[in-house]
Amino acid sequence: MPAQLIDGIALSKSIRADVAHRIAHLKSRGIQPRLSIVLVGDDPASQVYTRHKVNDSTETGLEATLERYPADLPEADLLARIRTLNADPAVHGILVQLPLPAHMDAQKVIEAIAPSKDVDGFHVSSAGALMVGRPGFWPCTPYGCMKMLESIGFSLRGKHAVVIGRSNIVGKPMAMMLLQQNATVTICHSATADLGAMTRQADVIVAAVGKRNVLTADMVKPGAVVIDVGMNRNDEGKLCGDVDFEGVRQVAGWITPVPGGVGPMTRAMLLVNTLEAAERATR
Ligand code: NAP
Fold first, then answer.
1. Closest-lying ligand 1 atom to the alpha carbon of residue 261
2. Domain coverage including residue 108
3. Active-site choice (56, 118, 120, 242)
């Protein structure tokens, strides 16, 4: 029997509805949750992403402002702008769209954001909070993956989860979140000698690589849950993930599609984090 789909579009809709409800409650107390998005340069993908973030925010009642700066903006000017946003009590979340132009130190820029407004969850303080299990902001993509696992009632306790990829924004925080739910976690990467030997043992596989067909049917234990974070283009130029979807769905128990899986969940979790920042600021 083919795997059941975990529908990121349907789940993200219900999360957005909940966010809208909580925002309406804040507004009834005279609080307008606000997100400041900063875009430097004219990277075409970043322009699309930031536009989505503004539209998503507006739809749920969040106020989002998009500040655009030229690619040659001096780093010091960006840092000064972030300091001003940090000090503005009307701004609850700050998001600097990545990638930044090459003359900027992206980590330094992220570290300039007040941890209480770090709704992307990329600040070292957010990463540390996740590591020690304290309240902070979880990066939106792995946070969305966790919500997907929760939505199917999958208990991670004692299960073996394999995360393919170890970036600071997806793979590592994903592994930490799974660990906190008492899964046994293996992190794989480009130097992993035999990826299939690892994934075949897994009850849950999260693929976050950025290469097509990294995970094929022969690498999956029957019934496993497969979460596909990857975003690639196939030969026809269509969006596809890291997983050989047609093959793996014949073996897995659950699978996320691309498109319509992790992508919409990532977008929804930014709204959750921004709302959370506003709620915390006014508690
Ligand atoms: P990244 O920083 O490039 O990390 C990719 C990881 O994959 C690295 O850890 C790399 O290992 C590992 N890797 C490369 N080739 C491998 C192989 N053959 N076998 C095993 N591991 C391999 O990418 P990222 O930012 O984490 O993003 C990963 C993918 O997720 C991309 O397609 C990205 O577009 C997508 N993404 C999607 C969303 C969404 O909302 N759907 C959000 C974020 C990212 P090394 O560390 O050894 O180099």
1. 41
2. 30-114
3. 120
